Amino acid sequence: MNTFLRTKSRYDAILPQALQKTTERLPEALALLGIEVDAASLRLTVIDASALDARDAKWSAFPPNDPGNFDWRHDVGLRRKDAAPFHVAVWHGETLCGLGLGRKRGSRVDLELMEGSPDPNHPLKHLIRFCVDEGALTFTRDAGAKILRLVDPLPGALPLYEAMGFRVVRNRAGDLYCEREV
Amino acid sequence: MATKLKQTTGPRPAAKGGQTTGGGEKKGLLAGLGPAALERVRAHMNVHEAEGRPLKPKTAKRT
């Protein structure tokens, strides 16, 4: 097995464990905000074929998010070829409520995409960003990285990220991101 | 007069990357936030839930 495959195999093993840990921790974390969720229904998994199928079949029944409506099948397919991809599906029972995608780059994990279900009444409305970020935070730590970076955050979400301990950065090229040491 | 010790080239103290396993499990995003910060989080949760940078196809080649 070459070095790339060994590395990929290692991170592909770390990711589901990190998401399982996050699943167990999330109800307690949300309780800090006074939010109660059904712990038995909430789960974070990797984005597999069933998640992509659920996205295509169920989300298309609603007007698409704007911004949003990302090509998840394409982007997840590309990222899966990376050595250390991060991908998460947020479920409530059998309902796919959100998706997140990124990758580890050196000592940093970049969270590149995040989207909640366009169903305005999905059971985890307004909690997807938090669930995805918590999953990314756990993966960042478990993968041995030091920094979690949120790429191209929504300007309207910056106060939320700052409240959660991220710093807002705009680099010389004008790119906007949020970063937090883990 | 005290002899100044030479710095040796022994093993480096801590490995870069990799979380230490001692000291218990680290907490999540909200750990350590006070009531005011938690209130700020609550106040800003109602934000559109889609963001980021879609990936570019890798097939494009520079000419």
Instruction: Label the structural class of chain B.
Output: little secondary structure
Structural class computed from helices and strand pairing of chain A:
alpha+beta
Low-confidence stretches of chain B: 5-23
Q: What is the count of β-strands of chain A?
A: 7
Multimeric state: heterodimer
Strand composition percent of chain A:
25-35%
Fraction in beta strands of chain B: under 5%
Q: What is the helix fraction of residues of chain B, given as a range?
A: 10-25%
Terminal CA distance of chain B reads 69 Å
Shape of chain B: elongated
Describe, in plain words, how this protein is organized in 3D.
With 182 residues, chain A is an alpha+beta fold. Helices cover 37% and strands 26% of the residues of chain A. Chain A has five helices and seven strands; from the N terminus they run αβααβββαβαββ. Chain A has a seven-stranded mixed β-sheet, with helices on both faces. Chain B is built from one helix and one strand. The termini of chain B are far apart. The interface between A and B is large, with 54 and 29 residues.
Question: What labels describe this entry?
Answer:
heterodimer, A: 182 residues, alpha+beta, seven-stranded mixed β-sheet, 7 strands, B: 63 residues, 1 helix, elongated
Helix and strand layout, with pairings?
The complex is a heterodimer of chains A (182) and B (63).
Chain A: H1 3-31, E1 42-45, H2 49-58, H3 72-79, E2 85-92, E3 95-105, E4 108-116, H4 128-142, E5 147-151, H5 158-163, E6 167-170, E7 176-181
Parallel strand pairs in A: 4-5
Antiparallel strand pairs in A: 1-2, 2-3, 3-4, 5-7, 6-7
Helix pairs in contact in A: 1-4
Chain B: H1 35-43, E1 50-52
